[in-house]
Structures are given as C-alpha cells and as structure tokens.
Amino acid sequence: MMAGRRDRLMKNASNNNMSINPRSRIIIAIGIGILMGCIFAFLYPHGFFHTNSPLSTTDHFSNSQTSTLDCEPDERANILKADIMGLKEKNAELRKQVRELQEKLRLAEQGKDTAQKQFLALGAQPKAGPFGTVKSLRTNPTVAPDESVNPRLAKILQEVAVRKELIVVLANAYVREMLELQVSTIKKADIPNYLVVALDEEIAEYCKSNNVSVYMRDPDKGVDSIGRNGGNHAVSGLKFRILREFLQLGYSVLLSDVDIIFLQNPFDHLYRDSDVESMTDGHNNMTAYGYNDVFDELAMGWARYAHTMRIWVYNSGFFFLRPTIPSIELLDRVADRLAKQNLWDQAVFNEELFFPSHPEYEGLHASRRTMDFYSFMNSKVLFKTVRKDANLKKFKPVIIHINYHPDKLPRMKAVLEYYVDGKQDALDSFPDGSQ
Ligand SMILES: *[C@@H]1O[C@H](CO)[C@@H](O)[C@H](O)[C@H]1NC(C)=O
Ligand SMILES: *[C@@H]1O[C@H](CO)[C@@H](O)[C@H](O)[C@H]1NC(C)=O
C-alpha cells in the first residue's frame, strides 16, 4: 500500500518537473539543484526533517523524504502528512502486538503458577473417576515445621500440645476475671493442651501461680502497646499476628477468646478436614450453614427474583486452624489489612475467607467448615432459643461463647451455674438481648 502510493507521488513529481521545461539554463540549474538535494538527502536522511517516530530510520521513509525534495511546498506537506498517517497506523499496529504479547506472557505465568501449585498439592496428575466418585481436596498438606522461627515457643509447645494441637488464648489484665473463670472450666473439663499468651506481667504471674501454661512474647513495641492497653477489638486483631509462629512451628491452633466457657474437650468434636474450622454467629440451620436469599426487584418483571448467597459470619473468637499455607496466608492477609486500616477484625477475617477472586483481586483459597452451632454455641442461640426449649435445654454444648452480650461476666457465671452446678433457673433472669 505504502509502495503504491509512493509510486504515484513520484510520478506526479516528475510530471511537475516536465512542465517547467522552456529554458535550458534554468533546467540545468534546477537539475543541479535537484541532484544536490538528492545527494544531501541520501547522505543526511535525518538532517532536513526531524520526526519523533521510532520508524524514521526505515528505508522507505528516507526514500519518501528524498522524493519530497523534488516537489513544491504544499505537495511536500501532503506527502509528509500521508507518511505520518502511515506511521501512526504502523505504530498502532505495533502497540497492539505489544499488548497481545503482554497478555500471552501473563497467561503463561498464570499457567505456570497454577501448574506448580497443583504439582505441589497432588504430586501426580490424576484422572477423573466415574460419576459420583470424584472429590476435590479440602484437606491441604501441612507445612514442614520450622523451629528456627521461635525455638523458645517451640519448646513450650512441645510440652503443652497434645497430638500437635492446642488451645491458645490471648489475655491482658483487663480481662483477668473472665480468664480466671475460663481457666476454672478448662480444669473442670480436664483439658491439658491450653496455653495463655500473656500480654502483660500480671497475666503471666497469674498463670504461673495457678499452674496454667503461659507464653510471653519477646518484647515488640507495636504489639506490646496494643497488648497492654488495647480494648477488646484491638487485642482481638493482635491474634492474627501472634498465631503465625504457632502454625509455622507445625501446630494446629484452636484460638479462643476469654469470654468462652468450656463444658467438654473441644478436640473430641473437631473434623480436622479443612484449613479453617470455625464457630458461627448464625443461630439456625440457614444462617449458620448458608442459604439462598431471594431478593425481589419488581421492576425487572420476568427476572424480578435475584438469588443471593448468604451466611452469617464466622466468629473470629473461636476457630481452629490447621498449619497449612492457606491458613497462614489468611493470618497474613487479615493482619496486613488490620495494620493499615482501622477495621473490625471479624469483618476482615470473613471477607478474606469468603470473597472470590475478581478483577484486580485474588481471593484466598482456604477450605472452610462451620462448627455445629448447638455444640459450639453462641449466646444468641442460648438466650433466644435454647433456654426456652425443654429438649434443647438438656443438651450439653462443648463450649458457650458470650459473644452477643456486653454483660459477659454475669452471663458466664450463670452459664456455669446452669450447666455445671445444675441450677435450673440460673439463665432465666437475663433478657434475650442487651437492654
Ligand atoms: C499442674 O498441671 C499439670 C498438668 O497440666 C499436673 O500434672 C500437675 O499436677 C499440676 N500441678 C498442680 C500443683 O496443680
Ligand atoms: C437442621 O439441620 C439438621 C441436619 O443438618 C436437621 O437434622 C434438622 O432437622 C434441621 N433443623 C431444622 C429446623 O430444619
């Protein structure tokens, strides 16, 4: 295309030269001028016309420049314009090629990444079995224990953990009363693998003098000031930073807040098939385990019903983590967001666990299991439902978490009176919610 246009232009240029023919001297003078021009153009292709185009060094462009010297000013301008148009097209074409190559590279890297992960997870590439027999992995391999991250903690865990599993509780002096109550239930339920992470000296002292396993971290300014002076939510956010080392050391952690009463040994009631096994804030089958919530938008007529996936959040005050890469990634992602923004740790914990990958965002791929909401009972279930139901009242939960009520201590004591001492009316005086 370029070549064809150029030929046509050359022809025009030579016709122009023919039309100014009458006087031979003038012809010779013009001829010499043209010759000189051609020679200069040949020797200094960039000397006369400057362009920013990356293509200015290509042969056909220098040729075009040569031809433009044969012509009158507006003709030359037209030729140049045409050349520039051509170059712009060429540029756009190259840019498109670059984009396509970048996309190919990105896909190749994605493929490599996925393939590597699959190789690590499975070891071999399986064939799909017959209908009804295939089952994907939810139990990820555990990480290789790395004692070097914290030899002192490794030694403590070796003594405290049972089958490489333990309960971990963070506490500072503000929650001492609740901790004492919890420890009394731990002892009654005969749970040996229970460890307190003391956030200040008072709690460390309390544990030592009461035969409770305790771990105090090495001084760390940022963590320590939150640990000593932080309120409920701030301390709650700390656990995501502190738990990492436990998992790196190869231990499964059952994280527990202090406002929890233990009535049975929770390790007898875990499934251990998922990265994260958590108690729920839900209060019945639907809210605890998930349901299809149909949203009605009348204006859409035929398509008025929009189906939405709903589940009540997992409770970030009581969850079991297996020492796997997704679990550690979860801790990192939550800790990172809590460090940068003032957010509620439970909301962040759930967003990271549940939001899928989407444009500009890569979701976490952790397997999840919701604990039985009667066995691992929140205080809404207890005070709204269970205490009013003759059958449910007889059932003994594994734990009860006073997460829905601000008057935690009196309700914890009432739970103990009812479930441990058998005082039948111990729960009756409390309202369903806080009032
Ligand atoms: C302290 O606890 C350990 C096990 O947790 C137990 O063997 C020991 O008897 C306890 N000691 C006291 C003084 O209670
Ligand atoms: C809740 O689910 C369990 C089984 O998961 C079932 O036995 C029970 O009947 C269900 N309860 C209600 C109220 O649907």
From TrEMBL:
InterPro entries in UniProt: Nucl-diP-sugar_transferase, Nucleotide-diphossugar_trans, RRA1/2/3
EC number: 2.4.2.-
Chain coiled-coil ranges: 77-118
Pfam families: Nucleotid_trans
Cellular component per GO, a single term: Golgi membrane
Boundaries of every Nucleotide-diphospho-sugar transferase domain copy: 191-409
Any GO BP annotation: cell wall organization
Regions crossing the membrane: 26-44
Topology with respect to the bilayer: Single-pass type II membrane protein
Keywords: Cell wall biogenesis/degradation, Coiled coil, Glycosyltransferase, Golgi apparatus, Membrane, Signal-anchor, Transferase, Transmembrane, Transmembrane helix
The keyword Glycosyltransferase is annotated on this UniProt entry: yes
Recorded GO MF terms: glycosyltransferase activity
Protein's cellular compartments: Golgi apparatus membrane
Enzyme class: transferase
Family: Belongs to the glycosyltransferase 77 family.
Protein's name according to its UniProt entry: Glycosyltransferase
